[in-house]
Amino acid sequence: MDKILRIDMGAEGGPQAKETPLGEYAGFGGRAMTSAIVSKEVPPLCHALGAENKLVIAPGMLSGTIAAMSGRISVGCKSPLTGGIKEANAGGQAAQVLARLGYAAIVLEGKPKDDALHKIFINKDGVKIVPDNNLRMLPNYDLIEKMKTEYGDKIACISIGPAGEMKMSAASVACTDMELRPTRHAGRGGVGAVMGSKGVKVIVLDDSGMKMRPPKDPEKFKEANKKFVEGLRQHPVTGQGLPAYGTNVLTNILNEVGGYPTYNFKEGKFESAGKISGETQAELEVKRGGLATHGCHRGCVIQCSGVYHDKDGHYLTKQPEYETVWAHGGNCGIGDLDAIAMLDFLDDNYGLDTIEMGATIGVAMEAGLAKFGDAEAAINMVKEVGKGSYLGRILGNGAAFTAKAFGVERAPVVKGQAMPAYDPRAVQGVGVTYATSPMGADHTAGYAVAQNVLKVGGDVNALKPEGQVELSRNLQIATAAIDSTGMCLFIAFAVLDQPDTFQALLDLLNAFYGLNLTADGVTELGKKVLTMERDFNARAGFTAQHDRLPRFFKTEKFAPHNVTFDVKDEDLDKVFNW
Amino acid sequence: MDKILRIDMGAEGGPQAKETPLGEYAGFGGRAMTSAIVSKEVPPLCHALGAENKLVIAPGMLSGTIAAMSGRISVGCKSPLTGGIKEANAGGQAAQVLARLGYAAIVLEGKPKDDALHKIFINKDGVKIVPDNNLRMLPNYDLIEKMKTEYGDKIACISIGPAGEMKMSAASVACTDMELRPTRHAGRGGVGAVMGSKGVKVIVLDDSGMKMRPPKDPEKFKEANKKFVEGLRQHPVTGQGLPAYGTNVLTNILNEVGGYPTYNFKEGKFESAGKISGETQAELEVKRGGLATHGCHRGCVIQCSGVYHDKDGHYLTKQPEYETVWAHGGNCGIGDLDAIAMLDFLDDNYGLDTIEMGATIGVAMEAGLAKFGDAEAAINMVKEVGKGSYLGRILGNGAAFTAKAFGVERAPVVKGQAMPAYDPRAVQGVGVTYATSPMGADHTAGYAVAQNVLKVGGDVNALKPEGQVELSRNLQIATAAIDSTGMCLFIAFAVLDQPDTFQALLDLLNAFYGLNLTADGVTELGKKVLTMERDFNARAGFTAQHDRLPRFFKTEKFAPHNVTFDVKDEDLDKVFNW
């Protein structure tokens, strides 16, 4: 990871790859790397689908090492969905393989002169960029089968589906998992559309012949990793809840506290929550011969994922995440796990953000295109997106776009990006994160659900504005740092609760890089990342007025607690005062 | 005009009208009135289609008097197209009739509880608000026929077509002309969508029994009007060019100087310009029994309009304006006046902004939905909008929206609003207006074409950046003032060139209101209006970064002069330094 691979897709005579030294980006990984390059090199007022935008793909600081949980890969660019800076990250195998190939980042630049579609193959011998129009409009699963035939099964792939090719703002970048399935998505903000605009369908990575990245102090590193893993196993969330039921353990919890948005953010309890909960899902998975406990990449010790089989016992999709189950489930009034799993599969296959798509279907249902609860209609809607029909062109550009197309006022978005599975009125801390994150509405940017609802790492009343700004500030800083390490964000449960586990994380970084990083150093890194991101956004025209929730969250009371979002504007403006 | 009519469409128990005194809005008219009310009363971050937005309809300061040319009516709101403040104005009879009914403004507030559609009838006896769902989805021409049957032919109507009902961002508000046809549109910025969101289909005005508004000094007023009319008749543009050929006299002129954008702003000359020029159009109109010289409202002495008949000699539409002929003609590669006239009719009938629709079709053609030059395809596209099909929902929301739906980078818009018929690279002064006007791209906001091309009111080289900022500043100030008087903007040609005619305009205002307004006073009014508008936009989140042209105008050279837009960003930021 001592070099950057830059591929100019618009070079005269066809795409050209070159390696450049890290230079000023040395020491960065993951989100710090993508946000540094985008903030420095992309003109903030450029068109997100134009030659001036860049797509940056970066493994984390610890990716490619033996450190547990270090398999996150960051994808950054100017977002076609929000118009601001974007970092979306994913699990799967790509981070580890890319890191072992020695690249701290791949940067896709320029724009092809023609409309040819390309595959990029990278192994120990170098980089091959091949035009291949036979890949056009292939769904991700078919594409990966084709890549296996061409390149064998020792590969990891980063790809787009038809949605990315059609440059839709809900298009994701898919990464393959341990089974070489395209199930791990950098979903948010339309990063797939930017990859599509660069004329790149798939990046195939093969690290055969490459070694695990060596730490500066191998003994200390090994020791730190052991303590880190122990900490994760011992915490109830990372050691029990997530392995047993996955992220979907949250359905019952959020529904219980009345913070589960249903029917396009109308009310906080879903009568069919029990039918789609993590508990029900895990039981069904096991019964049908799937898996309720499974990792998305080698080195994962939390194992929050699973494998979902259909009624006949055949693979349908990976275990849908809580946010996906909510987006296509409660938010659309759909209480049917098989329908939700099918929607998850379709989203993955076409290359779509499940959160954006679920929120979009909710808006379309509010517009009257289908009745809430009509699973077949929801499935057909996603199929329209895959086809690129006119309706699909509307839906594939997300919830805000769909609301505008049909004149719907209630679009649950911030900076154009759909809100996830926690209502900001009943979980006010996450509302602060939605409003102020440079990424647009994003629960992962500062997961105050932990302190508001789960009571992990602190206890702040979810229904009151008090303390939420400070909470979100601290979480956004910590998250920006963790997103840079390549570590799965779920380590935060243990790291926030257990000082020893946090120290083990610091020790991992210090032993690997020969540093003396303290907690303050991590905070500084997080602040640095957020500052670069907010600076880009300011130059793109973002102001305090963009750090606001849609007004209906202030005026419509949310049952059962009958609360509105009560954090004052002037307090939202203090989130980044540090 | 000593009161404001406020209609709360969301009142408990159904819509409620009440009259309020002018209060702080005393002395305002037209754009000054709409922008003052919107800026003061509408929360800048509200949803444009929500209850908090207000639609303000205001005749000008001199409307309803015997003053020539005083028939403009302003329609203002927060724009669903730009997200900023909007004033769009129209000719026709509505301004005069509303002014004589005594209202300085109608303000539509709130949002109906149900989705009922209403008609509002106003005469000397008061205001009636009647739900009438039989009007649903009626095109403007059919609607007006129905209103004539119900209310007689001594009325003037302000209405929306299906586009406004569907809350499309390209929807206009139509005003009837002297023949009681819905041909005069407050077109820009989606004001029709806001009227639709208020559940109001049509406002029928009947001034029977009302009198011409009396001036404070009738003699002076009459004398000033005489001089004013003389000045208009004596100027070559208002006395000859516009009466003979209408605004479409500009096709040959702009094409000749290479500033006529064709094929979605690709190049500056159109090979079929001669086929669609004002000269050709006037000849055809006369030959078919239409009119080449006609006014849009009583009291017009310029008579820049006309009546366009089809091949069989039947009325098809009013004489299409230059911007309409360009938008549906050269910009789409269409050199066929009959097709353009049909498109003009369809736009008027569905209630759509012709500029936005032409730019939208140009973008759709660039996206490959049809070939440039395919008139039948263009007509079908507008029909899709009228039907509200999924394609229509895309196109009806304008050029920026359509570009996003189809992943097209080259969207000729500023603040989301499509550019009109003058390329900003070859007419750099109007480029400054496009970039900086609080309205989004709008030629009427500061018509530097006069000095850049026509050499009226000054002479500034169209192809160079020098002098454009000062020019646009002065024009934007003057225009904001003229838009407040109710005067047709075309008086500016004579007023800018002839000091006597400018003095006559001042004398009209002074004699009517008993004022001592000087040129400085007019400038102050213009600055005041712009300041209110920019203040609203700033509170809505607009920054200097929004006062920019799309980047392709800086990077793509424009034939035949091979120029880019060269006014520097830092100079654009000086437009409002006064």
Brief characterization of the structure:
The structure is a homodimer. Chain A is about 40% helix and about 15% strand. The first copy, chain A, has 23 helices and 17 strands.
In CATH, the topology of the domain at 3-205 in chain A is named: Aldehyde Ferredoxin Oxidoreductase,  A, domain 1
Q: Please report the distance between the alpha carbons of the first and last residues of chain A.
A: 32 Å
Global outline of chain A: globular
List low-confidence stretches of chain A: none
- Backbone CA Rg of chain A: 22 Å
What order do the strands of the largest sheet of chain A run in, or round the barrel if closed? 2-1-6-3-4-5
Number of strands of chain A: 17
Largest interface: A-B, 40 and 40 residues
Count of runs of 4 or more consecutive helical residues of chain A: 23
**Beta-strand share of residues of chain A:** 5-15%
Examine the secondary-structure arrangement and name the CATH architecture of the domain at 3-205 in chain A.
4-Layer Sandwich
Describe this protein's structure:
With 578 residues, chain A is of the alpha+beta class. Among the domains of chain A are: 3-205, Aldehyde Ferredoxin Oxidoreductase,  A, domain 1 (4-Layer Sandwich); 248-421, Orthogonal Bundle (Aldehyde Ferredoxin Oxidoreductase Protein, subunit A, domain 2), CATH 1.10.569. Helices cover 40% and strands 14% of the residues of chain A. Chain A has helices spanning 30-41, 94-100, 140-151, 162-165, 191-197, 218-234, 236-245, 250-256, 278-287, 322-328, 337-350, 354-366, 375-387, 390-395, 399-405, 428-436, 449-454, 468-485, 491-497, 499-513, 519-539, 552-555, 569-572, and strands at residues 3-8, 16-21, 55-59, 73-78, 85-90, 103-109, 118-123, 126-131, 156-159, 173-175, 184-186, 200-205, 291-294, 305-309, 315-318, 413-414, 417-418. The longest helix of chain A is centred in the last third of the chain and has 21 residues, at 519-539. Chain A binds chain B through residues 43-47, 49-50, 52, 80, 166-169, 193, 196-197, 389-391, 393-394, 397, 401, 404-407, 409, 539-546, 548, 550-552, and chain B through 43-47, 49-50, 52, 80, 166-169, 193, 196-197, 389-391, 393-394, 397, 401, 404-407, 409, 539-546, 548, 550-552.
